[in-house]
Amino acid sequence: MLRIGLIGCGRWGRHILRDLLSLGASVSVVTRQADGAELLRAGAAAVADSVAALPPVDGFVVATPTSTHAAVIESLPAGAPIFCEKPLCDDAGRARRLLEIARDRLFVMDKWRYHEGVLALAAVARAGELGPVLGLRTTRVGWGHDYADVDCVWTLLPHELGIAREILGRALPPRGAVADRNADGVLGMVAIMADAGGPWHVAEIGARSPERQRTVTLLCRDGSARLTDAYADHIELIPSPPANGKADALPPTKRPIAVTMPLLAELKVFVDHVRGGPPPKSAAAEGAAAVETIAALRRLAGI
Question: What is the CATH number of the domain that holds 15?
Fold first, then answer.
């Protein structure tokens, strides 16, 4: 049986444990929380308080707080593949160091690159179905921020960068950013990425919207396509109005998509990779590039 070491098993890590078990893996957990008996009842094969105390494993999944990712990855034994929650870390210099020590076996968990709605928008873009791509607008806002170690830019913006990479086929360079902040810290950001003369990406993320919103809108010459929610069962295709003059709005065409869980999809790819299959999306180099982009946007926003 395939053996996976899960480093960290908090709120999100428990979802990872559940899905790894459903994929037939034997999962040994490293956690410092006093919940070992509960994790064993949930199906963990073993619970340890350190990586050194783990039984032998074939691969690692890192689901600890963002600020600890680099130290955890650096502590793992050489050889086994590593799947790390995004972002890879919160420091561009350390991200480059992680490339040096684990480039070919380190991957980032960009679950939105496995989301059926994002994949459907990527197919529209690649096929030129609505004409050439002009830009991408993504929104990820809600109320509050659950992580004490880093601000919401580090936890929310990596999702948007992964979505853009999947739909546009490449990362775009940072061009500008403004931060939403108060005396307590950073509450959001509007970021602009763009190629010279090519497509652009405007991403809005924030932690003080009373309404939760997750939208992705692909803007093309002849129309737009959008995903209206993370759990939507379709994307919408909308023709463009005339550039000058008023026209009646046409109802969007709804294109069905499968409703599957992207976390399970990406974990399946990783488990299959550990067994000898193709690697997951978002290799270490792409994860490090995302960290550098976020660091550059923070500088542009004066953070």
Answer: 3.40.50.720
Looking at the chain, which runs of residues are DSSP E strands? 3-7, 26-30, 46-48, 59-62, 82-85, 106-109, 133-143, 174-182, 185-194, 200-206, 208-220, 223-227, 234-239, 253-256
Same domain, 148 and 197: yes
Model's pTM, two decimal places? 0.95
Please indicate, yes or no, whether residues 219 and 126 belong to a single structural domain of this protein.
Answer: yes
- The number of distinct structural domains making up the chain is 2
221 and 156 in one domain? Answer: yes
Residue 72, classed as helix, strand or coil, is helix
Mean pLDDT computed over 108-134: 98
Output the CA–CA distances (angstroms, integers) from residue 167 to 173, 220, 273, 286, in the order listed: 15, 12, 23, 15
Query: Strand, coil or helix: what is 108?
Result: strand
What is the radius of gyration, based on Cα positions, of the chain?
Answer: 20
Question: Domain for residue 248, yes or no?
Answer: yes
**Nearest in space to 258 (alpha carbons), one of 279, 227, 286:** 227
DSSP 8-state assignment for residue 10: S
The owner of tokens 């480059």 is: 96
Residues 61 and 227: their CA atoms lie apart, in Å, by: 29
What is the C-alpha to C-alpha distance for residues 62 and 86, in angstroms, rounded to an integer? 9
Domain assignment present for residue 280? The answer is no
Say which CATH number the domain at 234 has: 3.30.360.10
Please check the confidence at residue 177 and state whether its pLDDT lies above 70.
yes
Structure tokens at 276: 């000898």
What's the token pair of residue 154? 């580090």
Helix (H, G, I), strand (E, B) or coil at 283: strand
Per-residue pLDDT tens digits for 154-169: 999 999 999 999 999 9
d(CA 136, CA 165): 11
Let me know if 44 is exposed, middle or buried by CB neighbors in 10 A (0-12, 13-18, 19+): buried
- Residue bearing tokens 């008023």: 246
